[in-house]
Amino acid sequence: MRSTLKFAVPLAVAALALGACGTKGGDTATPAASGGAAACGNYKIGMFGALTGPNANLGIYIQNGVNLALDDYNKKHADCKVTLENYDSQGDPTQAPALAKKAIDDKKVVGIVGPAFSGESKAADPAFNEAGLVTITPSATNPKLAENGWKTFFRALGNDATQGPAAAKYIKDTIKSTKTFVIDDASEYGKGLADIVRQDLGSQVIGNDTIQQKQTDFSASVTKVTSSGADALFFGGYSPEAAPLIKQLRDAGWKGTFVVADGVKDQSFIDNAKDAAEGTIITCPCVPADVAPEFQAAYKAKYNEDPNTYSGEGYDSATILLDGIAAGKDRSSMVDFVKSYDKKGVTKQLKFDAKGESADIKVFAYKVEGGKIVGTGEIK
Amino acid sequence: MQNLIDNFFAYTITGLTIGAVYALVALGYTLVYGVLRLINFAHSEVFMYGTFAALWVVMLLGGRPGAGVGQVVFWVAMMFVAAMAMSGFIAVLLERVAYRPLRKRNAPPLIALISAIGASFVLAEIMGLRSRITGWVGLDDNLRDYVRNSRNNAGMPTIIAPQPIFTIGGYHVTNVDVFVIVGAIVIMIILDQFVKRSRLGRGIRAVAMDPESAALMGVNRDRVIQVTFLVGGLMAGAAAVFYMLKIGITRYDAGFILGVKAFTAAVLGGIGNLRGALLGGFILGLAENYGSAVVGSQWKDVVAFVLLVLILLFRPTGLLGESLGKARA
Amino acid sequence: MSDPTPPTTGDEPAVERTLADPADEVTEINPDVDIAPEDIGVPVVSEGERLLEVDEVTLRFGGVVALNEVSFHINKGEILGLIGPNGAGKTTCFNVMTGVYQPTSGGVRYLGKPLGKRKKFQITKLGIARTFQNIRLFANMTALENVLVGVDAHHSTGVVSAMFRLPKHRREEAQGYARAIELLTFMGLDGKADELARNLPYGDQRRLEIARALATSPQLLCLDEPAAGFNPAEKAKLMELIRTIRDQGYTVLLIEHDMKLVMGVTDRIVVLEFGRKIAEGSPAEIRDNPAVIAAYLGVDEEDAS
Amino acid sequence: MSTTTSAPAAPKKSSPGFRERVDNLPKAVKIALWVVFAFFLFLLPLLNIPFITTEGSDFGGVLFTVATYVLVALGLNIVVGYAGLLDLGYVGFYAIGAYTIGVLTSEHAHMSWVVVVPIAIVVAMISGIILGAPTLRVRGDYLAIVTLGFGEIVRLTLVNSEWLGGAQGISDIPKPPGLELFEVPSIDWSSGAPVVDLGTTSTFLKFGINDFVPYYWLALGIIGLVLVFDILVKSSRVGRAWEATREDEDAAELMGVPTFRFKLLAFALGAAIGGLSGALFATKAGFISPDSFQLLLSILFLAAVVVGGAGNRWGVIVGAIVVAYFPERFREFADFRVLVFGLALMLLAIFRPQGLLPPRRTVRAKRADDRQAVLEEGEAHV
């Protein structure tokens, strides 16, 4: 038996190590303390997205919004609380299907906020569709997601197809750029968006480049932009790349306008690019925080910071599901409830069309001024 | 292609700047490989810790330097001290914790690589989880600026404001470009002299050439290995400073890709060969930039790796061959 | 799972083996085991003919001349000694013959045909096998497996045959095991067939190297200082072994430092010094050759003893 | 004749106790034990055994992932464990297998799954040869970086090639044809004791969207086949040639082993198995994108092989289970998964440098012994 023992020990050590670390790590998914009245369904809603790992920030912003909505609901329905079940995909499509199955098998789960990213949506949504479990995504913006005929798919924000043209319009009409350079990060989101902008701007696009995600040295792209004489640059991508890109562009003395989309609408962009971020234009199909001051105040009270990207959408998505629970809906009847939903949320009028897209989409322009992202109004 | 011809000097100078960083990091791989025949997979994290040290020291000392030359010199010096100390420390720690126990047990070489990979994960994750870790020990409030959004980018203020100092082929060469390229070469020369002339340097060469004979001749192998790691760490620290001056933004996983590139540079030049690392770094930086210019930045890494394969096919031991031991005594 | 194997060696070996005293610490060889080369398509030359000719071979490494127009030949069925002081180019000469190095000029002819740029494994297949000065066994494989690798040189089982256990695989495995056991028995290693090579005592490792080389059924067996590290008693046994191997039909090329050993066992001797051939002839002739005496006396007393 | 048991103190020789007792069982009992064990493995996702079953994620899905890792580890073991070639870009072959399925069943054609899987294997194998033919001549450590580059080139090509779906990847990969022979009930433990739950069942080989168990069964079956293949090939001239090459390439060459050819063979076979696992992955996922083939995965694969014990097929299986299962089992500590994994790798390297289950030379030695006995019998009969 000694040989078995020998390899059992390292295993046990590994297991212990895992255990020991974990207890300290804490866990946000605490189940409900106790059930309420007999009629109470002990329902749950699911939060599906990256809560840990490299992409966790976005998921946590959403989760904050969802938790706020739950607090509101549970305050009103103290006798029958709804709990939140987290499905932490780490944004990884590979992990998504098994998590979706887990959510589907838990009959108490009546609706999902998420999946947060487009990739994991594609991996998990077919399963949700088959099981008839409603998903309202607060952040996945790939237009094609709505084209699959999934009857459980809803999107609480505008997709890239609405944002792209607005960005192009802003570049053309407001910035009055004549020579625009377009860069994307080859991601589904960034490239999709950049391609729409390229198409809409047509011949005024004087140069293109594609970078890699996680790239930090952009010297080749910088040379391309500066040598092209562009007066505006649209970047389709996320803030981790946007910050070093604009910093290096400004270091090289480029003076044009930097235009980005909601993937960069993130305080960390300004924190990292510092002065270079000044003047950056950010488009976003999201309502400026000051449009819903109560939400902003509540959020700030709870988390000690301003609502961040998609926090409002997270709040709205959760609110729709919670309204459904309040109206006595269960998993099977929730789909129709969401479909016919029509109420004002903190980000927009919450109403979906036949494909599950938000019916009322406005794209706003923001500008980085004095180290803050300031709304400059709707792009019409 | 036309773009490359028109902006040839722009691509060249910027390629050399990033190449200088590759070269300095590559030295760490090459030194350790020469002495231990080991791919120090975690060396990328040694570099990454250096970038954070450079960033933190700036934050610690007040965040934003004034203009004058004296100020700039002071800040850059502080960055060097902090980054090299941090990277050197991490490199030595790494050797003590991850490699020395294995050496004592005569573990197979592959397992050393696994230990290196493990160490790399641990180091990167500690940095990535630093907000959680400070949270446990109750220092979160005090260290908020240092640990906030620990999975995210961390940027630092501009230390050397880029100023064009001369123009070559239409490209305005900035003070930062010059500082990085010249600085890297100077450091490299110092290292070369150290390995050539100092007693410790001779020890390194002796162990690289023949560990057993070196031991017989009274060279303390453990000490030499430790010094090798330390020197590699110091070089990575210097690279980190140049990187932060040029890029200005780092992240817990910033080392990974850069490490892969630097290792590629080391192999390209001939692993184990100090001058090979320099040459490999510069060539890789240039190749990436030229490649990006011609086929698009998205193929940058592909260009780098294809170049590597081609060179290995025709020169199986890299451009300058592998010879830390024979390093031109 | 194992295949019934037709005995290829007759009855005696089995008997011999059972008689061997297991308590005996020193491994005794079993000279009566028939280990004659198998008929595996290697052309056989009649005794006395030239098996291998080294023809004006020169080898340079950069500026260093390792071999300088060295010529000699090996007759079928003889034991040829290749001697010389340290650094004389003996092993280098071996390496040229086995395809490790390509000569800068000149060439090696085997059975009248030039070896040309054949790869190492192809040369082995032609019938030249060697051992190494510093033992290079497959340390983590068993003694049996080490020998099997040698036998496999003339096998052609591939993935498909192995996967479906086709008759070819079965035939070759059976033949291979039989041959390997035969060789191990001959070397007195049959009791240690399942030991990892690295766990064998030094002397056994040396013998196992010879067995592995013999397993490739060579016409020419090249032994690179097989007696290195042996005491006189062991050396005597080794000489006996080499003679037995020759008597079983192999041609042997022996590199050796130890003059006494070489004198006692070889038919002819070639002497190298500084990459040059300085003498060639019978042991008696070599013993009296002034150039050889000078070379040995001038270099290393110990080696010449 | 002396036996191996009298061997002089071999370092790290595993104690014979358990192993020997199993070996000494009658053949019929051994076969029966194997059958029972195989049966247990097939039923594992439905047994819902407490503690083993993953809480945070669907157990069937997790087991499938574990099974793909096992398959990958078996393939990579041929390359790393047997032939001693350090491959840091194995994910490339995995991706090629998956994308062959994606391209031929969804993106550009709608061929039958049954036809496409062999194609995927062949394509992966060919890519292995294309990569190996020029690079296997370079020395070991260089091979590591070259293969690492290969993995990245494959991924970047996927990201940047519109034809391959770009970053969007390929969706709607069809399910393989099923059989729907019978239903297997699962076990429910919610009452504290096992109860057969006829409500939650898995249909034998109905490849649906929401039941991963049949995919797991499929993967398990394929693992079985690959294992048999592995055992047969390893215990032949081919396996010996690999090992000889790993031990001492020059000596092997001089003993008549065409080492380059065998290295290439190992590379091609490893690639083929990698492609097969990728194909399985794509089949179950239904959606693939370059994100699923990150460089990190190559490193995890290699870790699985080395953690388990490179060269021992049972060891690498254990390694694959450790690498794939533990992070899912301890999902609640998600943020620390990688950290703990890294720590575990370091601890393992220090305290178990040969891997969890080092190659069992003694077992092989024993088998050789049996052969010899048979030989002697044969002789005695004549």
What are the salient characteristics of this protein?
heterotetramer, B: 329 residues, mainly alpha, ABC transporter involved in vitamin B12 uptake, BtuC, two-stranded antiparallel sheet, two-stranded antiparallel ribbon, 14 helices, 72% helix, D: 382 residues, 2 strands
| Lateral strand order in the biggest sheet of chain C | 6-7-8-3-9-10
CATH class of chain B: Mainly Alpha
Q: How many strands of chain B? A: 4
CATH fold title of chain B? ABC transporter involved in vitamin B12 uptake, BtuC
Count of separate DSSP helical elements of chain C:
12
Shape of chain B: globular
Report the count of strand segments of chain C: 10
**Share in helix of chain C:** 25-40%
Mean pLDDT of chain B: 87
Unreliable runs of chain B, pLDDT <50, ≥5 residues? 325-329
Strand residue percentage of chain B: under 5%
Look at the helices and sheets of chain C and give the structural class: alpha/beta
What is the domain total for the residues of chain B? 1
**SS element count, helices of chain B:** 14
The biggest chain-chain interface is: C-D, 64 and 50 residues
Over the alpha carbons, how many angstroms does the gyration radius of chain B reach? Answer: 20 Å
Write the layout of secondary structure elements.
The complex is a heterotetramer of chains A (380), B (329), C (305) and D (382).
Chain A: H1 2-25, E1 44-49, H2 56-76, E2 83-88, H3 96-105, E3 109-113, H4 118-131, E4 134-137, E5 153-155, H5 160-174, E6 180-184, H6 188-201, E7 205-210, H7 219-228, E8 232-236, H8 239-251, E9 257-260, H9 267-273, E10 281-284, H10 293-303, H11 311-326, H12 331-339, E11 342-344, E12 349-351, E13 364-369, E14 372-378
Parallel strand pairs in A: 1-2, 1-3, 3-4, 4-5, 6-7, 6-8, 8-9, 9-10
Antiparallel strand pairs in A: 10-13, 11-12, 13-14
Helix pairs in contact in A: 2-11, 3-4, 5-6, 8-9
Chain B: H1 2-6, H2 8-36, H3 43-60, H4 69-104, H5 109-128, H6 130-136, H7 144-147, E1 154-155, E2 164-168, E3 171-174, H8 175-197, H9 199-209, H10 211-216, H11 221-246, E4 249-250, H12 254-269, H13 274-295, H14 300-314
Antiparallel strand pairs in B: 1-4, 2-3
Helix pairs in contact in B: 2-8, 2-11, 2-12, 2-13, 3-4, 3-5, 3-11, 3-12, 4-5, 4-11, 8-9, 8-11, 9-11, 12-13, 12-14, 13-14
Chain C: H1 12-19, E1 50-61, E2 64-75, E3 79-83, H2 90-97, E4 105-110, E5 113-114, H3 120-126, E6 128-130, H4 143-151, H5 159-163, H6 167-187, H7 202-215, E7 220-224, H8 232-247, E8 251-256, H9 259-265, E9 268-273, E10 276-281, H10 283-288, H11 290-299, H12 301-304
Parallel strand pairs in C: 3-8, 3-9, 6-7, 7-8
Antiparallel strand pairs in C: 1-2, 1-4, 4-5, 9-10
Helix pairs in contact in C: 4-6, 4-7, 6-7
